[in-house]
Amino acid sequence: MRFDDDAGLDASEVQDLRGSGGGGGGIGGRVALGGGGLGVVGVIIYLVLSQLGGVSVPSGSGLGSGLGSVGSGQQVDNSKLASECKTGADANKNHDCAIVAIVNSIQDYWTQQFARSGSTYEKAPTKFFNGGVRTGCGSATSDTGPFYCPADSDVYIDLSFFEELKTRFGAQGGLFTEAYVLAHEYGHHVQNLLGTSRKGTGSGPTSGSVRLELQADCYAGVWANHASTTPTESGKPLITDVTQDDIASALDTAARIGDDYIQEKLGGGQVDRSQFTHGTSAQRKKWFTTGFQTGEPARCDTFGTNNLG
Questions:
Q1: Considering the chain, what percentage of its residues have pLDDT values greater than 70?
Q2: Is the confidence at residue 38, as pLDDT, over 80?
Q3: What H or E segment, with its residue span, contains residue 139?
Q4: Which 3 state secondary structure label does DSSP give 87?
Q5: 28, 162, 227, 295: which has the highest count of C-beta atoms within 10 A?
Q6: Closest Cα partner for 40 from 179, 189, 178?
């Protein structure tokens, strides 16, 4: 995946909170994991946490050092990010700016898709944190993994998660893996705007929680289909190409964050379908592929089918 050198970036869509202290005692206590209501959604590693007791990153490990390698306790001025990340050329040589470009592309697509449907897409920032963060859904730690909080309509992620995907989950990694994760979380924002989030309740293979997560995977695939043709406000697409290797890395990640894979490979070795909240590896791959091949959000109706794959 590469970015158009001349396309403009909007760094205001990414906020770095890692120097703000963040951790203990957030609004409303610890976040509620799971689907609708005020609980956070998109917690990819929830089953790992429940079975293995967490995947915390040791302090000083150097993981999650993106966005200027900001350390805990250091204050961050987003104007620095804005000054460094102005064009696609910056995204091609600077990982910080690549993340900005990915978020811009995802939100540009949904802005235009909502407009075609006669609706208005409300942009939401991605907030990076280190160790812990306070949100409208409560306080969270890095162990929570990437998530979307419907209460404040923000995406949250500790970038150390991407290292966890490689070291613990065995994923290939790479920039498009990060794009898939971010696009999945913005899929939850779309669900919140459309009122679908409230359906994401319960657990089990056909639960609302599973359907919500598979739909977010499908929405991520829809964005991937349009990523290289969606123009920014300047009229140029940010992303010049999405390769087969990029799609392969997304599917590889999807396969390693299925409920069955996590329970069997990273949990106790037993698969308990009654505890499914995200879908199997095969289902996650199927629904991302459905979105990518069709490019149509309407084909992502996981709530209207009995065949989840």
A1: 81
A2: no
A3: strand 138-141
A4: strand
A5: 227
A6: 189
Query: pLDDT tens-digit profile of 58-108?
Result: 222 222 223 333 333 334 457 777 889 999 999 999 988 999 999 999 999
Residue 132 banded pLDDT, cuts 50, 70, 90: confident
Reduced to 3 DSSP states, what percent helix, strand and coil does the chain have, rounded to the nearest 5?
A: 50, 10, 40
- Give the integer Cα–Cα distance in Å for 141 and 135: 11
User: How many C-alpha atoms does 187 have within 13 Å on its Cβ side?
Assistant: 30
Quote the DSSP letter at residue 147.
E
Q: Is the pLDDT of residue 272 over 70?
A: yes
Task: Report whether pLDDT(110) > 60.
Answer: yes
CA angle (213 as vertex; 130, 114 as ends), nearest 5: 90
Do 34 and 209 meet the contact criterion of CB atoms below 8 Å apart?
Answer: yes
Q: Does 37 have pLDDT greater than 70?
A: no
**Which residues, in sequence order, are bridge partners of residue 255?**
none
Radius of gyration over every alpha carbon of the chain, rounded to an integer in angstroms: 18
CA distance 1 to 222: 16
Among 109, 115, 132, residue whose Cα is nearest residue 179: 109
Backbone angles phi, psi at 14, to 5 degrees: -120, 130
- What are 302's two structure tokens? 């996981």
DSSP 298: G
Query: What is the 8-class DSSP label of residue 2?
Result: E
In terms of residues, how long is the chain?
309
258 burial via Cβ count (<10 Å: 0-12, 13-18, 19+) = buried
Q: Which residue has the tokens 């250091």?
A: 74
